[in-house]
## 1
Amino acid sequence: MKCPICDGSMERKKVPYSIGGLKLGNFEADACSCGEIFFTETSSDAIDKKAKEKGLWGLEKRGKVGYSGNSLIVRIPKKVAEFMNLEKGGDILVRPEGKRRLVIEVE
Ligand SMILES: [Zn+2]
């Protein structure tokens, strides 16, 4: 199998997969040296199953940045809030990790 991103050759191997920093395990995938990883269909099913078992299913959500007054607003999906025990009025610490990652810590 050729990598659709860089056209390099892909290697079938076990690759670790995690959601929200929690490891789900190693799963069979086609991996390229450019960093592109495609999990096999069997692995995708296994990942879904594991994620559901651990209550991590559907925690990743895409969203858009909104704004209110002078602040930008990022909506936190209900499932994520529940998973992290986030509540209205709760204290958080917002910290950028580089230009592409924003970390919210629950205090
Ligand atoms: Zn590649």
## 2
Amino acid sequence: MGPPERARVRFSDCSDGDLAAGAPGVDRRRQRLVDLPWTWLRQVHGREVVVVDHPGAHAGATADGAVTSVTGAALAVQVGDCAPVAVFGASAVGVAHAGWRGLVAGIVPAVVEAVRRLTPGPLQAVIGPCVRPPCYAFGPDELDQVASAVGDTVRARTSAGAPALDLAAGVRAALAGAGVDRCDDVAICTVCSPRHWSHRRDGSVARQSLVAWMAP
Ligand SMILES: [Zn+2]
């Protein structure tokens, strides 16, 4: 089952090139991926969400989420290991950049609430490629912080048995807490996948994108 019929969600990979904000030539690669005006964000691991009321509005804003009910407005977040999350309903979409700091800050419920203000009916979500527990050793103090924000479901182990963060489980818990029960997950680990950029794997500053928009 896919998204409601007008919502579109696209995840890029390495074959689409570096979509990091400010990368040389990034505008051309954005348009090749999705040929619409983009609202991309200067992400700071916070909970700010921009409401896009015309295509391209708030491009370059300092925020970690964007929502719209306007046809043809591409909303994008760019990620290297953090989770890209799309939330969509009958007549609106939203995107979130969710790393562990964003989870603690509450970016997921902030985007869900902003989408809900734009559309009636139930919401769905999808989690894109991100670092997964086997590859995400995590300090016990930070793990406690994330667990106190979204629950013990985030407590996991690496393949070597060390404490790890299950970021996707945390996103799923935050979505459920905000009333989004249906959540798909592409189940790709950026560290393991040769088709994805990963800062944790090799220090790369290149990024893949999640792009979501409403089709006519
Ligand atoms: Zn992995």
## 3
Amino acid sequence: MVAKSSSKAKKPNKPASPPPQRKCGCMSMHYWLVEQFPQYRIAQTEIEHNFMAARRVAKTAPKKPYTISVVVHLLQAPGGAKITTSQVNAQLKTLNQDFRAQNFDRKNVPPVWKGLVADAMVEFQLATKDPSGIATSGVIYAPTNEIEFGQNDSIKDPSRGGSAAWPTDRYLNVWVGPLKDGLLGYAQFPGGPVDTDGVVISINAFGSGGTAVAPFNKGRTCTHEVGHYLNLRHIWGDTPDCSGGDSINDTPNAEGPNYGIPTFPKVTCQNGPNGDMFMNYMDYVDDEAMFMFTPEQVARMQATLDGPRRSLWS
Ligand SMILES: [Zn+2]
């Protein structure tokens, strides 16, 4: 995610002035991967085909949650603000509430869509064992000389000041660091190169308290990016008109991203009377204005967990 008018702060590791609005780097990463990696192109086509096939079969809800081990890489620049354990824990708590529909603010979903608030049945826990089986806190403090990182995945590359992924078939890797140009975060869709799989979150948009800055200080950047990691698209379909979709039937067609804290209803694309489902995690609104996934989004995430990301939890 990128804030539109970026902060040019010399010390981006300190909480900067809040980015005015959310914008995600996920789709530009997707198009880059499509160009660079033929295997990603093939995998994405196959994943989409399998999802379309799976949705035609009535699926029973999983009996127990999918549990995912998380490793958090905290990139620590010299003299930069340090993310505390409580900030990491706050982020994990938000993920667990949001992906189990236990977030207290789901009560704010407009009455017409209350029946569409869905439990994704995904739970996250900090890794307790590292790849060698040695006990770990699941949090890596990685010293770096880089003042800030861009969207070129250097944050994942030790030779460019980043921190190497733990095996991405077993762990959800979350990299947190000072990001350039008001970037809030980005994720890699399933089917991409294994070394870079995971999500990247700005130090200013990770968890709550500490270095997190309003209006992106409630952990929802990570919820949004993990949604992408589990193959969800933006709710308006990433087209500048009403032509694109998110491959989901229970989210209304929408014209473009919504920002800030919109007022219900916001009608676009002849989607009245209820309008855009801007309170969905996959829109661009502020952290405090997003609070739901739908049943079809959940089906798409679960198809990903039963398919290309099966090794994460099984
Ligand atoms: Zn996004």
